[in-house]
Design goal:
mainly alpha, 2 strands, two-stranded antiparallel ribbon, 22 helices
Length: 518
């Protein structure tokens, strides 16, 4: 019964809290290896590791055969390489999500035309295939640069080295509501300060960082489906009441948060992800179909100042759109895909350069860099940005609407890189930009102490900076620099102001009903 009996005993039997017998090992005793169990239908580890590559290759081959275009299969292989390439140990999967959106802008019309046979302007009026290949090359170069930059000097940071939460739920909700209410006023203020317009506008993006933190908290350590659905529905409704497609960013923030907690073994995760993708496509289609009528009413001051009036107008237009006949619906889908597929004007430019116009030898990129590094606050006479339509007119040979109608038709950084350098040198600046952004992504995740602030800033800043294939170099570099300097500084100051102490993990707000976990 004393110490001698305990020392002489090598094993004892006990029971766990669940009633399962547990064998307690003596000092220095090694537990036996668990038996290897392979039931019927269980593949060996080596075979399981081949399942995903084989499925991707089979899908690529099948899509090439169905569409009759080998580029369709190549596109699948590019997308399949992006996600493992951009998988990082820390932070949300926002880099992969942003590059995927660029991939969609490059390939959407290719798959739509190949699967449905529906004619699109880029298919009928241009040789689009070379531009699709160039776009896929840009996606690969950008992803490669991001992956290298995010891994340089990579050193895992222990979970106990930083506090997890910056705010408790009441404060987080209050900040979010304040951001929603003040965004319009801050935007009006920004245009009254010419020297700081872009910097002040960048501060409005803090709303997306806070929103992502909320989504992140609702998906970690378990997914709270009810609260996440309610929050997303509210944000999408608010987004539809703006002048632009403000519902897109909330949907993307929710998708990135969900993917960060995605478990491919859970069927519910697949169902929710598929539903989220369907909502993205449907909301984009509805917006493209109703936005002309919706925006025309902004001439009324009462309408422009009343969110409720605008929401009711959106509901009425959507109700009318749903009741239209099938022919009109297919025409709307054609227009939506055509708007999403950003290759038409670049494809025309590829046909004309250098056949009719010479390459610019880096002049476009150099002007963009000079514009970004010249602050308007110190240079009041800095020239204003010209409409992207000027690039389309010059290099694509199409007289599109421009400054005279306060319109800008996108040309895109990929087309500018081609006009500047041609193949294959055009991919070098794309890779370098990706490398710098990858380094910045890694750096921000390390220097922001509170983890939720770090992932919130990373999700908002790098999504906004990276997701648009059709954005020009001058706007891409300008937005990236502005977000890093202004929004990054604000978040960093807040991070240093908050006490560096772990805030107890507070659960979600009281449940509105039965809240199922993941």
């Amino acid at each position: 019964m004393g110490g001698s009996s305990q020392a002489g005993s090598t094993r004892a039997s006990s029971r766990s809290t669940t009633g399962t017998p547990v064998t307690l090992l003596g000092a220095g005793e090694v537990p036996p290896a668990p038996p290897i169990r392979r039931g019927v239908g269980t593949a060996a580890p080596g075979l399981r590791s081949l399942e995903a590559p084989v499925a991707v290759l089979a899908g690529a081959l099948a899509l090439s055969l169905v569409t009759g275009d080998w580029i369709a299969g190549a596109g699948v292989l590019v997308l399949a390489s992006v996600w493992p390439l951009l998988k990082t140990e820390e932070g949300p999967p926002v880099l992969a999500m942003a590059v995927t959106f660029q991939w969609i802008q490059v390939t959407a019309g290719l798959y739509y035309h190949g699967l449905t046979g529906r004619p699109l302007p880029a298919v009928v009026l241009s040789d689009y295939r070379p531009m699709v290949l160039i776009g896929l090359g840009c996606v690969v170069a950008l992803a490669g640069g991001l992956a290298l930059g995010a891994r340089l000097g990579q050193r895992p940071l222990g979970a106990d080295a930083r506090p997890e939460r910056a705010f408790e739920w009441p404060a987080l909700v209050a900040v979010h509501v304040g951001c929603v209410l003040l965004t319009g006023s801050v935007q009006e203020l920004a245009w009254r300060i010419p020297g700081l317009t872009q910097g002040v506008l960048a501060l409005t993006y803090v709303r997306y960082a806070i929103l992502f933190i909320m989504f992140w908290r609702l998906t970690h350590p378990r997914v709270r489906w009810v609260w996440m659905g309610l929050l997303l529905a509210q944000e999408v409704a608010i987004g539809f009441t703006g002048y632009f497609a403000g519902f897109r960013e909330p949907l993307m923030m929710a998708a990135v948060a969900l993917l960060s907690a995605f478990d491919r073994r859970r069927w519910r995760h697949w169902v929710v992800l598929a539903g989220l993708l369907a909502i993205m496509a449907l909301s984009g289609l509805i917006w493209m179909s109703i936005r002309a009528d919706y925006r025309s009413d902004f001439e009324s001051q009462l309408y422009a100042e009343s969110r409720q009036e605008r929401l009711e107008r959106v509901a009425a237009l959507t109700s009318t759109w749903v009741r239209q006949d099938f022919t009109d619906l297919t025409d709307d889908i054609d227009a939506f895909v055509d708007r999403l597929w950003a290759v038409y004007y670049p494809a025309l430019a590829v046909e004309r350069v250098p056949a009719l116009l010479p390459h610019e030898d880096g002049e476009i990129l150099w002007r963009a860099i000079l514009h970004v590094v010249t602050p308007r606050l110190l240079t009041p006479d800095k020239e204003t940005l010209q409409s992207d339509s000027e690039m389309v007119r010059r290099y694509s040979g199409v007289w599109v609407a421009g400054d005279e109608s306060r319109t800008s038709i996108a040309f895109g950084y990929a087309a500018e890189a081609y006009v500047d350098f041609g193949l294959p040198l055009m991919f070098v600046p794309v890779f370098v930009y990706g490398l710098l952004m990858g380094l910045a992504y890694r750096a921000w995740l390390r220097i922001i102490i509170h983890r939720e602030l770090a992932v919130g800033f990373a999700a908002a800043a790098f999504w906004l900076s990276l997701y648009l294939f059709e954005r020009s170099w001058i706007k891409t570099l300008g937005l990236s620099a502005t977000v890093m300097v202004y929004l990054g500084t604000a978040v960093l100051l807040l991070d240093r102001f908050l006490p560096v102490a772990r805030i107890p993990a507070a659960g979600p707000p009281p449940r509105p009903g039965r809240d199922r976990t993941a």
